[in-house]
Amino acid sequence: MPEVQVQALANLRHTSTKEDDNLNQIETIIAVLAGQTAFGLLLALFLIVFLLEFHHRFLFYWALSCLALAVHYLSAAVLLHSSQVPEAIPLSQGLHQSVMVAGISLHALWLVIGAWVAASNRPLHQVLHWSLVALVTVIAAILPAGWGSLLILQLPVPEAPSISTMPVLVATAFVIAGFFLWRSLKRFPLLSSRLVPIAFGLYAVFLVLVSLTSPPLLPEALLLSPTANLGLAGLLLQVLIGFSIVVWLLEIERRRSSHARDKARNAEERLTRLRMNDPATGLPNRRQLQEQLAVEVRAASSKRNRVAVLAIGIERFRVVSQALGWQKSDQLLLKLSQKLLALAPRDVILGRIGEHEFLMILPNAGNRERATQRIHDILTEGTGPIEQDGRKVYLKLSGGLCFAPDDHIDAVALIRMARQTQAHAATVGQLLEECCPEHGDGESHNLLELEQELRAGVKNKEFQLHFQPLVSIRQRRITGFEGLLRWQHPKRGLLTPGSFLHEATRLDVLNQLEDDILMQALSQLSDWQNELSLPPLSMSINLSAQRFQQRELVTKLDRFCQKTGVKPSGLHLEITESTAMQDFEAGLDTIARLRALGCKVCLDDFGTGYSSLSHLRRLQVDYVKLDRSFIKNLERDQHERDMIRAIVDLIHSLGMTVLAEGVEDKQQLGYLIHCRVDVVQGYLFGKPQPAEAYRGVLERPELVLG
């Protein structure tokens, strides 16, 4: 073969081999770009899942950033593939260039925005956000035409188009994002506080190295080199960034959970203090006094000693309180309590049991006569004036005294006897009156008379329900009523449950009375629903501990609902914490059966009983009603509002609805709305009244809270 032909053949083979190498290289790059596209979409999906789960706003921007990156890679792959096709339309290539540059530009923009939102924990105004997106998109559309001479690469394909790249811009975005994250994380001794900034910084260095490579690199490979090795390096760095973000999110949630546990612990401790102490004076409240008195009585019995129980009333206190205002009145009570403690023996226990009542327990009273004289001296000296804002305020005291075990051994009975004796002393104008043991026969006679009156009252339908509206803050309308028991006594007038319910339980009248009240409540709810065109209303009824413990409770309620035509879902049953805790496991079973029937269960007076959040979680009730003692202190104490907000958030996290009672003014309502309470009840919306009083309200089509 001639030498010229051999040389020509060699040249032809060399050219063919070179073209094959270029083709293989392009196919490899396209394959890696496809993988990068899939990785970007997968990371975006992963961030969206985290966004739906944890609701971090910065994840929204980073998910958009990953989607934009996937668009960039996809456009680059399509553009590279079209460069191999001779008949490719130039307009199509220009469009892919614009989409590619827009994708990488938006990727950088959303990366920086997400990092800023994560670092500052502040939302970006939507108008500003979308204005930046529009501006970047418009500029990106112009860049391929105007900046074609910048960072140009000739593809290893004849007549391949020139494409502009912006690796330095993206590297700058990663540096800025890494700086934001480092500033926000450096104060936390966590793995992510070091891993996230390092991952972002390494990726920025990689991009700068790519941009400095000669000849310039493919624009579609801003995060990928045309060589497989650099492409794999970029992919590994992307995986490192994704891993660092996952670690960071997990540590954020762990820190949030720890913070929530701390808030729960603080709220529970504050609940315990609130449950056991008077907020104005810091003294033990009635519940704590009962527990302490029971302990002292048991100790005195074993030592053959006496315990003196003294109820102290302040006469004309309401007049003084109106003149001074509630804040000055609390200060006055605090000074009076300090004065009484200074006058009393060192081992005395002093607490507050009412608006203007104190209770003093003297554990080692000793001789009855000497103890009475000493207590008389305490009241005499305590009656003197108290300095308040540079003027003297005169308070007149009266006391009722009883002894254990002489008069009684039950703590509740002793406190009741002391208060009754104090009330009588105030009526007759005496400083101190002592309870007489011989009054026990009179009490038995009174109980027999009261039993006859109670049974006659049930028979004659003297017991009736008054209703107080429950207002949904979200729906801004009345969504239900609570039925409150009243006794229209033929001689003593309208009586509240506090004056007869305890005795009705002792005298075994309560069971029949509760049956009658439940039927009244369901019948009234049925009348409202049938006579008026209303959205669904609920009826809340208090269940006694005795009724709650009955095995046939669910069957009886089902029968009552069928008889009145009321759906069980309209019946809300309120139980107290102490009722549920009497037999906790049995209580759980009863609540489960009530909910299976369709009734809603509400935990009443939350915060006055056990107040255990672990118990609340296990009880699985539908509603939790905050006791009015929380509400009355809202205007006084910022810490009280913070505590309520924490409690409400915790109850919501358990999937329960929060109801607040005792709302009396619009300022309290505003605080409760801010605390995200769901339902409110109180004098602001209506006092407990007969059903007829609310008919006019219900007939109006707009049951709207003003």
Structural write-up:
The chain is α/β, with parallel strands linked by helices. It has three domains: 3-260, Rhopdopsin 7-helix transmembrane proteins (Up-down Bundle), CATH 1.20.1070; 286-435, Alpha-Beta Plaits, CATH 3.30.70; 462-699, EAL domain (TIM Barrel, Alpha-Beta Barrel), CATH 3.20.20. Helix content is 59%, strand content 13%. The protein contains 24 helices and 16 strands. Strands 8-9-11-12-13-14-15-16 form an eight-stranded mixed beta barrel. Strands 2-3-1-6-7 form a five-stranded mixed β-sheet, with helices on both faces. A two-stranded antiparallel sheet has the order 4-5. The longest helix is centred in the first third of the chain and has 52 residues, at 3-54. The protein is elongated. The model is unreliable at 1-16, 145-164, 214-227, 438-445 and 701-706 (pLDDT under 50).
